[in-house]
Structures are given as C-alpha cells and as structure tokens.
C-alpha cells in the first residue's frame, strides 16, 4: 500500500507544481515565463524521485510503468494499481488547481499548438517519451529511479524537452499528467494522442535498449 500512496503523492506533487506553473503563467499573462515553467517541471520531477524513488520507484507515469513491465523489471500485476494511483494523483492535483484558479481555462492542459497538426504532435510526443524512457531505463536500478544520477538525469531531460517542445505540444510524455487537466478543464480535443503516443515511445525505448545492450539487459535485477 505504501508504494501506491507514494505514487499518488508523487504524481500529485508533479502535476500540481508543473501544471500549476503553467496555470499561473496563463492567468498572469506570462509572469512565470516559458523557461520558468520548464524549470519547474524539471525540478519537481527531480525532487519527487529523491523523495519516493526508494519506496515506489518514482514512476509517476503510466507509460514508464508499462515500459518497466515490458522490460521485465516490474510485475504486470502491479501495473493497473500503479496506473490508477498515478491518475488519482493527477486528477486531485488538477481539482485543487481548479479550486485555486477558477479563472484558468486550461489548467495546464496539454494542447497542440495552433497550426501544428495532431499527427505531427503525435510523432513529437512519441519521440519525447522515447528519449525520456531511454534515460530512465539506463539510470534506474531495476524498476526504481533512485540515486543522485537518476534524479539529475531524469529531471534534466524533462526540463530539456519541456523547454524546446513545450510551445508545440506542452511536452506531456505522461498520460496521467495529460488526463487530470483535460478532465477538469474540459479540453479533451487532443487527449487521444497524449494517451497513446507516450506508451508507444516508452516501449520503443525498451526495444532500443535491448538492441544496443546485452541480451539479458532487461531481465529483473540487472
């Protein structure tokens, strides 16, 4: 039970701070700034990995959880419970942001930039998650993101991708992170791509890991 609670709290903190920065930036006309939003995402992910990495593995992302299971580093039986915990955390975070900032129309929802076709956004989100999972699986111990290296590496890649891709797709890389704001703000138009592309990208990262590393690289305990 402690692992699931950790995933709820960690995902809550991540979505609350990350989309909270986006929400405040929206209602203040850019006070936080785009770099400020990207830095917020990177720092909160880093902090939550340090806080909960040794308890739940600090997944905070359904795509990461599924990819770890596919890599044989995590039990498939635990996947539904982790995904549910992550979605609950994200929805609670968005609910509180709605209460705090009712003037917001987006609540940090992942929306495709005007003029950027959804199918291009799908490919971009797939690639962003691919790079994220590639880093995660190579710095993690089993299915746990723990240690100084994991926190810095994963937080940095989140910051990097949010910095350059945020203006186009909001750089979700995380179905739970997209689900919460979409449900509470009513911005459901592009949700389908944010619920599918990250899973594909994360699974491709595991496949690539198997191609370039030892044959047993994705067995439990490696």
Can you offer a commentary on this structure?
It contains 8 helices and no strands. It has a single domain (2-212), classed as Glycerol uptake facilitator protein (Up-down Bundle). Helix 4 (79-100) runs parallel beside helix 7. It has 222 residues and is mainly α.
Summarize this entry quickly:
With 222 residues, the protein is mostly helical. It has helices at 2-27, 34-52, 62-70, 79-100, 118-139, 147-169, 175-185, 191-212. It is found in: Membrane.
Give descriptors for this structure.
8 helices, globular, Glycerol uptake facilitator protein, mainly alpha, 222 residues, transmembrane helix, MIP family channel protein, transport
Secondary structure: elements and pairs:
Layout: H1 2-27, H2 34-52, H3 62-70, H4 79-100, H5 118-139, H6 147-169, H7 175-185, H8 191-212
GO cellular component, one term: membrane
GO molecular function, one term: channel activity
Keywords: Membrane, Transmembrane, Transmembrane helix, Transport
Number of individual domains: 1
Overall 3D geometry? globular
CATH first level = Mainly Alpha
Identify low-pLDDT runs.
none
CATH architectural category: Up-down Bundle
Q: What is Rg?
A: 16 Å
- Structural category is mainly alpha
Largest sheet entry: none
| Percent of sequence in beta strands | under 5%
Q: Predict the CATH topology.
A: Glycerol uptake facilitator protein
The chain-level mean pLDDT equals 95
Number of strands: 0
N- to C-terminal separation?
A: 25 Å
Give me the strand/helix succession. Answer: HHHHHHHH
CATH superfamily: Glycerol uptake facilitator protein
Query: Helix fraction?
Result: 55-70%
Q: How many individual helices?
A: 8
């Amino acid at each position: 039970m402690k692992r699931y609670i950790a995933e709820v709290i960690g995902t809550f903190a991540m979505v609350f701070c990350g989309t909270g920065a986006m929400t405040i930036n929206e209602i203040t006309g850019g006070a936080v700034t785009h770099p400020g939003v990207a830095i917020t995402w990177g720092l909160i992910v880093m902090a939550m990995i340090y806080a909960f990495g040794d308890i739940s593995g600090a997944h905070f992302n359904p795509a990461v959880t599924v990819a770890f299971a596919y890599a044989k580093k995590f039990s498939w039986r635990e996947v539904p419970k982790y995904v549910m915990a992550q979605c609950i955390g994200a929805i609670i975070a968005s609910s509180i942001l709605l209460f705090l900032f009712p003037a917001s129309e987006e609540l940090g929802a992942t929306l495709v930039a005007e003029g950027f076709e959804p199918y291009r956004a799908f490919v971009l989100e797939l690639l962003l998650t691919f790079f994220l999972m590639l880093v995660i699986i190579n710095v993690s111990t089993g299915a746990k993101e723990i240690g100084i290296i994991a926190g810095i590496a994963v937080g940095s890649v989140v910051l990097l991708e949010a910095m350059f891709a945020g203006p186009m797709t909001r750089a979700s890389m995380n179905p739970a992170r997209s689900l919460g704001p979409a449900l509470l703000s009513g911005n459901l138009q592009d949700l389908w791509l944010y619920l599918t592309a990250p899973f594909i990208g994360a699974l491709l990262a595991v496949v690539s890991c198997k191609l370039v590393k030892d044959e047993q690289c994705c067995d439990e305990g490696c």
